[in-house]
């Protein structure tokens, strides 16, 4: 071999060895971990991505993309995008001081102008929960981090500002150039968001899946155990959701068959989280149509209702008998009200006093497909037959049920079964929507009309922000009237029952935000 070639080869080998040695000696960067993902198996598809008009189940998405000025937590109003607030003596002027150094997902800074723009847009559109802002006369921007609300009448604005619907704050600098309210709604519903929340919208299919990714510049900060990606997967089949959560294909779900919950409580792969909800099931009684236009007959039905059996056989014990119109745990719940319990003898005596001894025929409607409501109707039929009531049960889809109920009360159903939960946690939301007199029926599907009751609750809500004890006293008086007049059966409050994979921790159900999983609170189990 040529000497020059040999020397060159030796040099090349030396260079390679040196290079390899240098590479091996270099500090190695750790491989980037795969993004962590948490999945909420949800029951039904999304409706809208517009925070101004959403008034249904899309809250489960929006509550992770957007934030309110305040947050309802464990019965109290806590700071969120606002850090503090105060009012004048009569609660007609409220000033909110806003959190600084907050960014929208666009990178735009959050300011008082965004608060004013967002709430004025919601009021202007007049859809969804826009009614919560009825007290507002004017919103004033004092400076970038101070906003003032001037009210038409006194109101508990910090509580209103925590609402699960209609109170989300949007990025006005991003949205206002898009066009009018309809054009903005179109932009949002194509799969965009404009919030400050811990997650931003990555992909959106209303019928199958919503994917959100963590917003790195979120004002609350992040730790390594929180999730990079949060997914809401639409899985209508409850049995399939149960299989998925027990095999960790999804990490959290709800509304599984209650018959299966006891076995799930013994499954080592999951934990069951059952907490009282702010939801209540009512049997609205037609107060304008014979025979239920007679208070004694309504009271008889109340005494002939097997409340404990409803909780035992419909809820499998996951809930409580309703004691009054307001769910337990909420402002306005009173356990000292005169209430009804199962007493067939008392029911028969009341019917006799009312002059009904030959029996009667009543029509009950419930929402088709709701197995719990169906079971309630069947138990009522069996129990009421003991006092001579022939109860006809008719299942209708909600649109049909509501249309029938709101057309002509004199020809409508006698009993309507349905649920109510609050737009924000005030007793007024229940008492006004369900029992305040109306010219045309909307949700007062008992067609109840009592001017004394109306006056008491209207007075009470105006005092919530300045004299809560006086407000509660007035609500108590109003609810005493309801219990006596019996325009509805107060049946039960179900528990919120979630099944959660043991691979995650940090879940805490907040009844003020129904069905919402706040993904930011969740962490991986080490």
Structural descriptors:
alpha+beta, four-stranded antiparallel beta sheet, twelve-stranded mixed beta sheet, 32% helix, 526 residues, 16 helices, 20 strands
Report on the architecture of this protein.
This protein has 526 residues and is α+β, with helices and mostly antiparallel strands. It is built from 16 helices and 20 strands. The strands form 4 sheets. Strands 1, 8, 9, 10, 11, 12, 13, 14, 15, 16, 17 and 18 form a 12-stranded mixed β-sheet that branches. β4 (82-87) and β5 form a beta hairpin. α10 packs antiparallel against α12 (371-384), α14 runs antiparallel to α15 (451-463) and α15 (451-463) packs antiparallel against α16 (468-485). It is globular, with a radius of gyration of 28 Å.
- Given the structure, what is the number of helices? 16
Instruction: Note the quaternary state here.
Output: single chain
Cα radius of gyration in angstroms: 28 Å
Helix content: 25-40%
Instruction: Kindly estimate the percentage of residues that lie in beta strands according to DSSP.
Output: 15-25%
What do the pLDDT scores average to?
Answer: 93
Overall, the morphology is: globular
SS class: alpha+beta
Please outline the major beta sheet. Answer: 12 strands, mixed
DSSP, total strands: 20
Q: Spans with pLDDT under 50 lasting ≥5 residues? A: none
- Cα separation of the termini: 63 Å
Helices, strands, pairings?
Layout: H1 3-25, E1 37-42, H2 59-65, E2 70-73, E3 76-79, E4 82-87, E5 93-98, H3 112-125, E6 136-143, E7 146-151, H4 157-160, H5 172-175, H6 181-189, E8 199-205, E9 209-214, E10 229-234, H7 238-246, E11 252-254, H8 261-265, E12 270-276, E13 280-285, H9 295-303, H10 307-314, E14 319-321, H11 344-354, E15 360-367, H12 371-384, E16 389-396, H13 398-407, E17 415-420, H14 427-435, H15 451-463, H16 468-485, E18 488-501, E19 504-505, E20 523-524
Parallel strand pairs: 1-10, 1-11, 15-16, 15-17
Antiparallel strand pairs: 2-3, 4-5, 5-7, 6-7, 8-9, 9-10, 11-18, 12-18, 13-17, 13-18, 14-18, 19-20
Helix pairs in contact: 9-11, 10-12, 14-15, 15-16
